[in-house]
Design a protein that fits this description.
alpha/beta; nicotinate phosphoribosyltransferase; TIM Barrel; 21 strands; about 20% strand
Length: about 475
């Protein structure tokens, strides 16, 4: 029997209802904001087709912290690899906007043909440093803005959150439990792993990225049986290695039932309880009770895990108070990069921006530099094609114009990834990005590892960058007066 369309689902009359694949669309070049397509049309129509350089960066560290962990380069490259306007895409744009058919023909063959300089995934970065530097024909560079901001912004936000969680945990494991809360669950699981999460509960992401999967059992499984001990015995009989959730009814009695069920299964089947989990109540007090009772029962290798609205501030408090917690499951606070009300930190978005820094030819630096001035302060931008250098071991970072002599005792953070639309460098794997993050965080000064930082790390603009900015402002003011 063929599959036929029926409303918002696709009906397979022989077997089941299956999700319509158009409900979750495959990314295309329509992963952009409409005003970017309009802007590209204006540029195409008026002949503004010169090369443009955009910087993708943030204006502040997320969560009131002292750093951010760069992430999202590979998803950004995946977006650019898939970038094309299908016939359906072009027909849709024609229907809603009535663009010149020649523009739609231009879109038909449009692919990313530009250059990308990037800070590697897993590298420590700071505000105003370009995480990506894009150079491409102006309409092309315009249209990809939102897709790049999505990939880099979400990934960097969540990788930074994961790093803060793992730093606070001081060696205890942090597991990603965010799938049911995350707005972008694949990006969340991937970025969480780069930032230090030991595993993810999201099975599809665990398979996709070859990272460890983890989980315990739900309350519903316990509730389905006549009593908790029967439920625990069923788990212990079915799974060679398992964790038990203690807070369905009463934590203390739940622990006793877990000890009984696990002892029986160990003796008869060789099955092993690896952990107990607490998801509600007084997590600190209950963790102490569980640890003491498990040790009394000679179950020293059984770990005590906690979950339930966990964030880095709660973890820090547990660690400071010496709570015997071996691991934390973190859901929504990780998956959507939440801030914390009690600490007054802002989260949920990293505030990445994508700003034009250069337009035109390569010969006249002063004429090609571009700047945004309105708004003042951190809303104004820095012109020119820029590089980022780390001086010493986190002494300070320097943003310098490309082509200027590199400073001494430096490490260049940006490298060329794409030229003329083609990869020219190997993109590190997720495990390599994770290893880089671990190494970067290990060398981060203690003052920048604090959850709240009042004295930010110094990022300097070179004399050449400052001079170019002053000249660009003077030229812009002169042009405005002349107009």
């Amino acid at each position: 029997m063929p599959i036929v369309q029926s409303g918002l689902i696709t009906e397979d009359r022989e077997r089941r209802y299956i999700a319509n694949p158009t409900i979750t669309p495959i990314p295309t070049a329509l992963y952009t904001d409409l005003y970017h397509v309009d802007a590209a049309y204006v540029a195409w129509k008026s002949g503004q087709m010169g090369n443009a350089t955009f910087d993708l960066y943030t204006r502040s560290n997320p969560f009131g912290g002292g750093f951010m962990l760069a992430a999202g380069l590979e998803p950004a490259l995946d977006y650019l690899r898939a970038f094309k306007y299908t016939r359906e895409d072009r027909d849709y744009l024609q229907r809603i906007k009535g663009y010149d058919p020649n523009f739609l023909e231009y879109l038909r063959t449009l692919r990313f043909t530009g250059e990308i300089q990037a800070i590697a995934e897993g590298e420590i970065a700071f505000p105003n440093e370009p995480l990506l530097r894009i150079t491409a024909p102006f309409p092309e560079a315009l249209i990809i803005e939102s897709g790049l901001l999505r990939s880099i912004g979400i990934s960097t936000l969540i990788a930074t959150k994961a790093a803060r969680l793992t730093l606070a945990a001081r060696g205890a494991t942090v597991a990603d439990f965010a799938f049911r809360r995350a707005h972008e669950p694949f990006l969340a699981a991937r970025s969480g792993y780069i930032g230090g999460c030991a595993s993810t509960s999201f099975v599809a992401a665990a398979r996709e990225y070859d990272i460890p999967g983890s989980g315990t059992i739900p309350h519903a499984l316990v509730q389905a049986y006549a009593d908790e001990l029967t439920a625990f015995r069923a788990v212990a009989a079915a799974l060679p290695a398992y964790s038990l959730l203690l807070d369905t009814y009463d934590v203390a009695q739940g622990l006793e039932n877990a000890i009984v069920a696990s002892s029986e299964a160990r003796e008869s089947l060789g099955h092993r309880m690896t952990a107990v989990r607490l998801d509600s109540g007084d997590l600190e007090a209950d963790s102490r009770m569980c640890r003491a009772r498990l040790d009394e029962a000679e179950m020293h290798d059984v770990r005590v895990l906690v979950s339930g609205d966990i964030d880095e501030y709660k973890i820090e408090r547990f660690v400071r108070n010496g709570a015997p917690i071996a691991g934390y499951g973190v859901g929504g606070n990780l998956g959507v990069g939440l801030g914390t009300i009690e600490s007054g930190t802002v989260g949920g978005v990293i505030g990445a921006v994508y700003k034009l820094a250069w337009y035109g030819g390569d010969d006249d630096e002063r004429a090609s530099a571009r700047i945004k001035l309105a708004g003042g302060g951190d809303k104004s931008t820095w012109p020119g094609r820029k590089m980022v250098y780390r001086i010493g071991e986190f002494e300070y970072d320097l943003i310098e114009l490309e082509g200027q002599p590199a400073p001494t005792h430096n490490r260049s953070l940006m490298r060329s990834i794409v030229q003329r639309g083609h990869l020219v460098a190997e993109v590190p794997s997720i495990k390599e990005a994770r290893a880089r993050a671990e190494q970067s965080l290990a060398t981060l000064p203690d003052r920048l590892r604090e959850l709240t930082v009042t004295e930010p790390y110094e990022v300097r603009m070179s004399k050449a960058v400052q001079s170019l900015r002053a000249d660009t402002i003077a030229r812009l003011n002169s042009d405005q007066v002349g107009a």
